[in-house]
């Protein structure tokens, strides 16, 4: 049963990485693919910890995942306010 979850985890991670690599024009699409990777990691860690450990670590993992998402949305809003869009080509670190 755990082998099925391993294959499912690999499929989810590689599809998230593929979308992260292929959709790198917009910041929002890269942030969504990163959240998909974090969600697939959460599912895998959940299935591992249900069988072997307690589930306290999952609360820490979810807390860091939410903080990462909030920071990403903050960067997205700041970039849209300053540049007008979320294209990486219009964003230059030297202009700040």
UniProtKB/TrEMBL annotation:
<comment type="function">
    <text>Core subunit of the mitochondrial membrane respiratory chain NADH dehydrogenase (Complex I) which catalyzes electron transfer from NADH through the respiratory chain, using ubiquinone as an electron acceptor.</text>
</comment>
<keyword id="KW-0249">Electron transport</keyword>
<keyword id="KW-0679">Respiratory chain</keyword>
<dbReference type="InterPro" id="IPR001133">
    <property type="entry name" value="NADH_UbQ_OxRdtase_chain4L/K"/>
</dbReference>
<dbReference type="GO" id="GO:0005743">
    <property type="term" value="C:mitochondrial inner membrane"/>
</dbReference>
<keyword id="KW-0496">Mitochondrion</keyword>
<dbReference type="GO" id="GO:0042773">
    <property type="term" value="P:ATP synthesis coupled electron transport"/>
</dbReference>
<comment type="similarity">
    <text>Belongs to the complex I subunit 4L family.</text>
</comment>
<keyword id="KW-0813">Transport</keyword>
<keyword id="KW-0999">Mitochondrion inner membrane</keyword>
<dbReference type="GO" id="GO:0030964">
    <property type="term" value="C:NADH dehydrogenase complex"/>
</dbReference>
<dbReference type="InterPro" id="IPR039428">
    <property type="entry name" value="NUOK/Mnh_C1-like"/>
</dbReference>
<keyword id="KW-0812">Transmembrane</keyword>
<keyword id="KW-0830">Ubiquinone</keyword>
<dbReference type="Pfam" id="PF00420">
    <property type="entry name" value="Oxidored_q2"/>
</dbReference>
<keyword id="KW-1278">Translocase</keyword>
<protein>
    <recommendedName>
        <fullName>NADH-ubiquinone oxidoreductase chain 4L</fullName>
        <ecNumber>7.1.1.2</ecNumber>
    </recommendedName>
</protein>
<keyword id="KW-1133">Transmembrane helix</keyword>
<feature type="transmembrane region" description="Helical">
    <location>
        <begin position="6"/>
        <end position="22"/>
    </location>
</feature>
<feature type="transmembrane region" description="Helical">
    <location>
        <begin position="59"/>
        <end position="80"/>
    </location>
</feature>
<dbReference type="GO" id="GO:0008137">
    <property type="term" value="F:NADH dehydrogenase (ubiquinone) activity"/>
</dbReference>
<feature type="transmembrane region" description="Helical">
    <location>
        <begin position="34"/>
        <end position="53"/>
    </location>
</feature>
<dbReference type="GO" id="GO:0016651">
    <property type="term" value="F:oxidoreductase activity, acting on NAD(P)H"/>
</dbReference>
<keyword id="KW-0520">NAD</keyword>
<keyword id="KW-0472">Membrane</keyword>
